[in-house]
Amino acid sequence: MRYFLELSYSGKAYNGWQIQNNAPSVQQTLQEALSTILRVPTGVVGAGRTDTGVHAARYVAHFDAECPLEEPQRFCYHLNAILPWDIAVQDVRRVRDDAHARFDAVEREYKYYVSPRKDPFRRDVAYQLIMPLDLDRMNEAAETLLGRQDFTSFSKLHSGNKTNICRVTRAQWREQDGCYVFTVAADRFLRNMVRAIVGTLLDVGRGKLSVEGFRAVIDGRDRALAGTSAPPQGLFLTRVDYPDDVYVKQH
Amino acid sequence: MRYFLELSYSGKAYNGWQIQNNAPSVQQTLQEALSTILRVPTGVVGAGRTDTGVHAARYVAHFDAECPLEEPQRFCYHLNAILPWDIAVQDVRRVRDDAHARFDAVEREYKYYVSPRKDPFRRDVAYQLIMPLDLDRMNEAAETLLGRQDFTSFSKLHSGNKTNICRVTRAQWREQDGCYVFTVAADRFLRNMVRAIVGTLLDVGRGKLSVEGFRAVIDGRDRALAGTSAPPQGLFLTRVDYPDDVYVKQH
Questions:
Q1: Neighbours of A228 (CB within 10 A)
Q2: B22 within a domain of the structure (yes/no)
Q3: Rounded average pLDDT per 10-residue block, chain A, 251 residues
């Protein structure tokens, strides 16, 4: 029987979600803890890659268990006791046997945090950019991201994707607790896409690029046109959505 | 001429505010940075001690400069560039020549953060206590802290204080962003006082101590009666207030 695990992690100590040789990954760490709890080697499949140093406030991964799990809260408590401090499990939910954490996801959301001042408590969770930013212009540019478009300009070269088309449903900056927060939601994201978008929007915010210039970057479909990627510590995966029918009702 | 410096710091890497032999302190680190900027050995006097590992969201220290400082925002920018990431200066304000960061403070406020769940993003800024807590009873007990009282039960032994009387003006728990936050304000605090109070209130919250039992701890005036001190990483100094007339108007 298959389960979805809802978790959060600080990406600081990991070379991203995905298992790699000779580098710590969230996937590997989670597999080892699950295998210990379930007493059988257990693989996990994640909702998608996150890059080195990128955080997840809400991530979803699926795994298979031979027997039904104990009560979810107890299971999470035990799993959290084995996992290191920087990975925390919030919930485990029974899903259909063919449910897939990556392929069934219908929407994902990221948030990017920029701190406009030096802040000892946000060093690992925001990009500290001590510089005046024009949020209105950044939002004007961000609006042009909405809809179904080709985002080749914000992708990694040679990613091997069949298409670079994504449907962006939200793209907006706002102020929150003294930070500038960019929220972006889409049906899918290309590798490095959010950080490339944020880096280019920050160029708009500091007057290096006009709103029209930003639009031309998208239309150019050329990675060389975009700005420098914003650093990873400001980026959080914050939501992964699935259709209701992937979940199996439990009593 | 004398200045008040407003700063914040993460206490994680420091053995508290106060200079010590062979141990890093915020005071020492700040003095070195100021001495570099002002090009003359410069001492700073803080609003009070903070213990090893305790944070400050707003701390005030005074220092003397031989010449008037450059524009405050520029001065802070340069000072922040020299200071390590875990100490940040927000403002510098000219004060009367006899103003004193410690003796002129009329009220101080602390906040203590308890996270009732494992949270990878709050490891260094909250006490993670995975346990049901009765916030109503904790607030009932906290209310008995209000007023002018002898707090010997929540002091360190042999502190050398002439009196252990403090006037507590606020003592209240509330929920905020998934954390339990205790806010306490007083004219003065004894060493270790807030963490001893929080540790004892947590005993009330988990049913180990009654509200009447908590009141008896205060009345007993005996450090042995209080609960274990709560750990330092949850504690923040959040406010230090001065009378308006310590500040000198600048043009």
A1: 11
A2: yes
A3: 98 96 96 97 96 97 93 94 97 97 97 97 96 96 97 82 93 96 97 96 97 96 91 98 92 55
Which residues in chain B are contacts of A10 at CB distance < 8 A?
120-121
pLDDT digits (tens, 9 = 90+) for B99-134: 999 999 999 999 999 999 999 999 999 999 999 999
Phi, psi of A240 (to 5 degrees): -135, 125
Contact flag B88-A57 (C-beta cutoff 8 Å): no
- Total residues found in chain B within this entry: 251
Chain-chain contact of A10 with B121 (C-beta, under 8 angstroms): yes
Q: Which domain holds residue A40?
A: 2-103
Question: Of B194, B183, B188, which is closest to residue B227 (Cα–Cα)?
Answer: B194
Same domain membership, residue A135 and residue A68: no
**Nearest Cα residue in chain B from A80:** B118
Q: By CA distance, what is B9's nearest residue in A?
A: A120
In a domain, residue A248? The reply is: no
Q: How many structural domains compose chain B?
A: 2
Are B116 and B130 members of one domain?
Answer: yes
Residue-wise pLDDT tens digits, B33-72: 999 999 999 999 999 999 999 999 999 999 999 989 989 9
The reply to whether A3 sits in an annotated binding site is: no
Evaluate whether residue A246 is within a structural domain: no
- Considering the domain architecture, whether residues B75 and B99 belong to the same structural domain is answered as yes
Burial class of B88 by CB neighbour count within 10 A (0 to 12, 13 to 18, 19+):
buried
B86 touches chain A (CB under 8 A): yes
